[in-house]
Amino acid sequence: MTFTQFFRPLLLVVLLCVPLPALSADSFRVPILLYHRLGPTVADGMTITTTVFESHMKYLHDNGYTVIPLRRLVDHYLGKAPAPPPKSVVIVADDGHKSVYEYMLPVIRRYRYPVTLFIYPSAISNAKYAMTWDQLRELKKTGLFDLQSHTYWHPNFKREKRKLTPEAYEKLVETQLKKAKVKIESETGGQVNLLAWPFGIYDDYLLKKAAQAGYVATFTIERRHATPSDPVMKLPRYLLINADSGKAFSQLLEGKAVKRNVVY
Protein backbone atom coordinates (compact mmCIF):
# COMPACT_ATOMS: atom_id res chain seq x y z
CA MET A 1 0.00 0.00 0.00
CA THR A 2 1.38 3.37 -0.99
CA PHE A 3 1.55 6.41 1.31
CA THR A 4 -1.26 8.11 -0.65
CA GLN A 5 -3.48 5.03 -0.51
CA PHE A 6 -3.01 4.79 3.28
CA PHE A 7 -3.81 8.40 4.11
CA ARG A 8 -6.61 9.10 1.60
CA PRO A 9 -9.36 7.41 3.73
CA LEU A 10 -8.13 9.24 6.83
CA LEU A 11 -8.24 12.55 4.98
CA LEU A 12 -11.80 11.87 3.85
CA VAL A 13 -12.88 11.15 7.43
CA VAL A 14 -11.32 14.40 8.64
CA LEU A 15 -13.05 16.43 5.90
CA LEU A 16 -16.42 14.88 6.70
CA CYS A 17 -16.03 15.68 10.39
CA VAL A 18 -15.09 19.33 9.91
CA PRO A 19 -18.28 21.43 10.06
CA LEU A 20 -18.81 23.60 7.01
CA PRO A 21 -20.02 27.18 7.47
CA ALA A 22 -23.80 27.15 7.24
CA LEU A 23 -25.67 29.58 5.06
CA SER A 24 -27.56 32.07 7.16
CA ALA A 25 -31.34 31.87 7.00
CA ASP A 26 -31.27 35.63 6.57
CA SER A 27 -28.90 35.56 3.61
CA PHE A 28 -30.45 37.09 0.48
CA ARG A 29 -29.70 39.16 -2.61
CA VAL A 30 -32.74 40.97 -3.97
CA PRO A 31 -32.69 43.13 -7.11
CA ILE A 32 -35.05 46.12 -6.92
CA LEU A 33 -36.00 46.88 -10.53
CA LEU A 34 -36.68 50.58 -11.15
CA TYR A 35 -38.75 51.73 -14.12
CA HIS A 36 -39.75 55.28 -15.10
CA ARG A 37 -41.61 55.51 -18.41
CA LEU A 38 -42.99 52.97 -20.87
CA GLY A 39 -44.14 53.33 -24.45
CA PRO A 40 -44.30 51.75 -27.92
CA THR A 41 -40.99 53.41 -28.84
CA VAL A 42 -37.98 54.79 -26.99
CA ALA A 43 -38.81 58.47 -26.59
CA ASP A 44 -35.83 59.23 -24.33
CA GLY A 45 -33.14 57.56 -22.25
CA MET A 46 -35.57 56.74 -19.46
CA THR A 47 -38.20 55.06 -21.65
CA ILE A 48 -38.51 51.30 -21.82
CA THR A 49 -40.64 49.92 -24.62
CA THR A 50 -43.73 47.99 -23.67
CA THR A 51 -42.33 45.00 -25.54
CA VAL A 52 -39.17 44.99 -23.42
CA PHE A 53 -41.16 45.47 -20.21
CA GLU A 54 -43.42 42.55 -21.14
CA SER A 55 -40.33 40.43 -21.83
CA HIS A 56 -39.01 41.28 -18.36
CA MET A 57 -42.22 40.16 -16.66
CA LYS A 58 -42.38 36.99 -18.76
CA TYR A 59 -38.78 36.15 -17.94
CA LEU A 60 -39.46 36.49 -14.21
CA HIS A 61 -42.53 34.27 -14.54
CA ASP A 62 -40.88 31.61 -16.70
CA ASN A 63 -37.66 31.36 -14.67
CA GLY A 64 -38.99 30.83 -11.19
CA TYR A 65 -38.59 34.32 -9.72
CA THR A 66 -40.86 35.49 -6.92
CA VAL A 67 -41.93 39.13 -7.17
CA ILE A 68 -42.48 40.40 -3.64
CA PRO A 69 -43.85 43.76 -2.50
CA LEU A 70 -41.19 46.30 -1.59
CA ARG A 71 -42.91 46.63 1.78
CA ARG A 72 -42.22 42.92 2.41
CA LEU A 73 -38.49 43.47 1.93
CA VAL A 74 -38.49 46.58 4.12
CA ASP A 75 -40.34 44.73 6.86
CA HIS A 76 -37.54 42.18 6.96
CA TYR A 77 -34.95 44.92 7.47
CA LEU A 78 -37.14 46.28 10.26
CA GLY A 79 -37.36 42.87 11.93
CA LYS A 80 -41.06 42.45 11.13
CA ALA A 81 -40.85 39.67 8.53
CA PRO A 82 -38.61 36.71 7.68
CA ALA A 83 -35.98 36.91 4.97
CA PRO A 84 -37.35 37.01 1.42
CA PRO A 85 -37.49 33.65 -0.39
CA PRO A 86 -34.79 32.65 -2.89
CA LYS A 87 -34.91 34.38 -6.28
CA SER A 88 -36.99 37.27 -4.94
CA VAL A 89 -37.38 40.41 -7.05
CA VAL A 90 -39.00 43.78 -6.33
CA ILE A 91 -40.60 46.06 -8.95
CA VAL A 92 -40.86 49.83 -8.47
CA ALA A 93 -41.50 52.88 -10.68
CA ASP A 94 -40.60 56.51 -10.06
CA ASP A 95 -42.33 59.80 -10.95
CA GLY A 96 -45.97 58.87 -11.64
CA HIS A 97 -45.74 59.09 -15.43
CA LYS A 98 -49.04 58.48 -17.26
CA SER A 99 -47.46 55.60 -19.19
CA VAL A 100 -47.56 53.57 -15.98
CA TYR A 101 -51.34 53.70 -16.17
CA GLU A 102 -51.48 53.25 -19.95
CA TYR A 103 -48.83 50.57 -20.54
CA MET A 104 -47.60 49.10 -17.26
CA LEU A 105 -50.99 48.43 -15.66
CA PRO A 106 -52.28 45.94 -18.30
CA VAL A 107 -49.09 43.86 -18.03
CA ILE A 108 -49.05 43.97 -14.25
CA ARG A 109 -52.72 42.88 -14.15
CA ARG A 110 -51.84 39.88 -16.28
CA TYR A 111 -48.99 38.70 -14.06
CA ARG A 112 -50.47 39.94 -10.76
CA TYR A 113 -47.12 41.35 -9.66
CA PRO A 114 -46.93 43.90 -6.83
CA VAL A 115 -45.46 47.31 -7.71
CA THR A 116 -44.46 50.29 -5.58
CA LEU A 117 -44.88 53.71 -7.20
CA PHE A 118 -42.79 56.61 -5.92
CA ILE A 119 -44.60 59.79 -6.94
CA TYR A 120 -44.05 63.50 -6.47
CA PRO A 121 -47.46 65.10 -5.87
CA SER A 122 -46.79 68.47 -7.51
CA ALA A 123 -47.02 66.80 -10.93
CA ILE A 124 -50.09 64.65 -10.29
CA SER A 125 -53.22 66.05 -12.00
CA ASN A 126 -51.09 69.04 -13.08
CA ALA A 127 -48.34 68.05 -15.51
CA LYS A 128 -49.37 66.68 -18.92
CA TYR A 129 -46.94 63.77 -18.58
CA ALA A 130 -48.25 62.66 -15.17
CA MET A 131 -51.14 60.56 -13.98
CA THR A 132 -54.14 62.02 -12.22
CA TRP A 133 -55.13 61.32 -8.62
CA ASP A 134 -58.13 59.39 -9.93
CA GLN A 135 -55.85 57.15 -11.97
CA LEU A 136 -53.60 56.58 -8.97
CA ARG A 137 -56.58 55.69 -6.83
CA GLU A 138 -57.65 53.23 -9.53
CA LEU A 139 -54.21 51.65 -9.48
CA LYS A 140 -54.35 51.30 -5.73
CA LYS A 141 -57.77 49.64 -5.86
CA THR A 142 -56.26 46.78 -7.88
CA GLY A 143 -54.38 45.76 -4.73
CA LEU A 144 -51.18 45.56 -6.78
CA PHE A 145 -49.85 49.12 -6.41
CA ASP A 146 -48.46 50.79 -3.30
CA LEU A 147 -48.06 54.60 -3.49
CA GLN A 148 -45.04 56.15 -1.78
CA SER A 149 -43.02 59.37 -1.77
CA HIS A 150 -40.55 60.80 -4.27
CA THR A 151 -40.57 64.16 -2.42
CA TYR A 152 -43.06 66.89 -3.29
CA TRP A 153 -41.62 68.29 -6.53
CA HIS A 154 -38.46 66.24 -7.26
CA PRO A 155 -35.76 68.79 -6.38
CA ASN A 156 -32.06 68.43 -7.01
CA PHE A 157 -30.91 68.71 -3.39
CA LYS A 158 -27.26 69.34 -4.34
CA ARG A 159 -28.23 72.31 -6.48
CA GLU A 160 -30.66 73.69 -3.91
CA LYS A 161 -28.09 73.43 -1.14
CA ARG A 162 -25.60 75.50 -3.14
CA LYS A 163 -27.97 78.36 -3.84
CA LEU A 164 -29.96 78.56 -0.57
CA THR A 165 -29.05 79.74 2.90
CA PRO A 166 -28.80 76.95 5.52
CA GLU A 167 -32.12 78.05 7.01
CA ALA A 168 -33.87 78.15 3.64
CA TYR A 169 -32.40 74.80 2.66
CA GLU A 170 -33.61 73.18 5.86
CA LYS A 171 -37.09 74.54 5.26
CA LEU A 172 -37.05 73.23 1.69
CA VAL A 173 -35.98 69.76 2.77
CA GLU A 174 -38.61 69.55 5.48
CA THR A 175 -41.32 70.77 3.11
CA GLN A 176 -40.34 68.29 0.38
CA LEU A 177 -40.37 65.35 2.76
CA LYS A 178 -43.41 66.17 4.90
CA LYS A 179 -45.69 67.75 2.31
CA ALA A 180 -45.35 64.77 -0.02
CA LYS A 181 -46.37 62.37 2.75
CA VAL A 182 -49.38 64.42 3.75
CA LYS A 183 -50.61 64.92 0.19
CA ILE A 184 -50.33 61.29 -0.91
CA GLU A 185 -51.96 60.02 2.26
CA SER A 186 -54.81 62.51 2.03
CA GLU A 187 -55.48 61.74 -1.66
CA THR A 188 -55.11 57.96 -1.65
CA GLY A 189 -55.15 56.77 1.97
CA GLY A 190 -52.72 54.30 3.43
CA GLN A 191 -49.36 54.90 5.07
CA VAL A 192 -46.57 56.74 3.26
CA ASN A 193 -43.22 56.08 4.93
CA LEU A 194 -40.97 54.97 2.06
CA LEU A 195 -38.94 57.51 0.09
CA ALA A 196 -37.05 57.37 -3.20
CA TRP A 197 -34.39 60.09 -3.44
CA PRO A 198 -34.74 62.33 -6.54
CA PHE A 199 -31.78 61.79 -8.87
CA GLY A 200 -30.48 59.32 -6.28
CA ILE A 201 -29.06 62.25 -4.29
CA TYR A 202 -28.73 61.83 -0.53
CA ASP A 203 -26.30 62.49 2.30
CA ASP A 204 -26.21 62.05 6.05
CA TYR A 205 -28.16 65.25 6.63
CA LEU A 206 -30.94 64.21 4.25
CA LEU A 207 -31.07 60.73 5.77
CA LYS A 208 -31.49 62.25 9.23
CA LYS A 209 -34.23 64.58 7.99
CA ALA A 210 -36.03 61.68 6.30
CA ALA A 211 -36.04 59.69 9.52
CA GLN A 212 -37.32 62.70 11.45
CA ALA A 213 -40.12 63.11 8.89
CA GLY A 214 -41.29 59.56 9.53
CA TYR A 215 -39.68 57.59 6.71
CA VAL A 216 -38.52 54.11 7.72
CA ALA A 217 -36.65 53.31 4.49
CA THR A 218 -35.19 55.28 1.60
CA PHE A 219 -33.91 54.23 -1.80
CA THR A 220 -30.99 55.14 -4.04
CA ILE A 221 -30.11 54.30 -7.65
CA GLU A 222 -26.96 52.33 -6.91
CA ARG A 223 -26.94 49.53 -9.47
CA ARG A 224 -26.71 46.38 -7.34
CA HIS A 225 -28.74 43.88 -5.31
CA ALA A 226 -30.05 44.68 -1.84
CA THR A 227 -28.35 42.48 0.77
CA PRO A 228 -28.52 42.03 4.55
CA SER A 229 -25.53 44.35 4.97
CA ASP A 230 -27.34 47.33 3.41
CA PRO A 231 -28.75 49.97 5.78
CA VAL A 232 -32.52 50.19 5.41
CA MET A 233 -32.17 53.95 4.82
CA LYS A 234 -29.89 53.41 1.80
CA LEU A 235 -31.29 50.52 -0.20
CA PRO A 236 -30.01 50.20 -3.80
CA ARG A 237 -32.07 49.92 -6.97
CA TYR A 238 -31.33 49.10 -10.61
CA LEU A 239 -32.38 52.04 -12.77
CA LEU A 240 -33.41 50.20 -15.92
CA ILE A 241 -33.12 51.41 -19.49
CA ASN A 242 -34.24 49.80 -22.73
CA ALA A 243 -30.82 48.20 -23.26
CA ASP A 244 -31.43 46.08 -20.17
CA SER A 245 -33.17 43.39 -22.18
CA GLY A 246 -32.51 39.80 -23.22
CA LYS A 247 -29.19 38.52 -21.92
CA ALA A 248 -28.46 41.84 -20.19
CA PHE A 249 -31.62 41.45 -18.10
CA SER A 250 -30.87 37.88 -17.09
CA GLN A 251 -27.32 38.87 -16.12
CA LEU A 252 -28.68 41.77 -14.07
CA LEU A 253 -30.91 39.41 -12.12
CA GLU A 254 -27.87 37.24 -11.41
CA GLY A 255 -25.92 40.23 -10.13
CA LYS A 256 -23.74 40.52 -13.23
CA ALA A 257 -25.18 43.77 -14.56
CA VAL A 258 -23.14 45.95 -16.87
CA LYS A 259 -22.22 49.20 -15.15
CA ARG A 260 -23.75 52.19 -16.89
CA ASN A 261 -23.74 55.92 -16.36
CA VAL A 262 -27.42 56.66 -16.93
CA VAL A 263 -28.35 60.27 -17.60
CA TYR A 264 -31.24 60.84 -15.20
Note down, in words, how this protein is organized:
The chain has 264 residues and is α/β, with parallel strands linked by helices. It has one domain: Alpha-Beta Barrel (TIM Barrel). It contains nine helices and ten strands. Helix 2 runs parallel beside helix 4. The N terminus is likely disordered.
CA-based shape:
globular
| CATH homology-level superfamily | Glycoside hydrolase/deacetylase
Structural domain count: 1
> How can the largest sheet be summarized?
6 strands, parallel
Measured between the Cα atoms of the first and last residue, the distance is 70 Å
Report the radius of gyration as a whole number of Å: 22 Å
- Count of individual helical segments: 9
Strand content: 5-15%
CATH topology: TIM Barrel
Query: What are the low-pLDDT stretches, counting only 5+ consecutive residues below 50?
Result: 1-25
Instruction: Please report the total strand number as a whole number.
Output: 10
Task: Kindly provide the name of the CATH class.
Answer: Alpha Beta
Indicate the CATH architecture.
Alpha-Beta Barrel
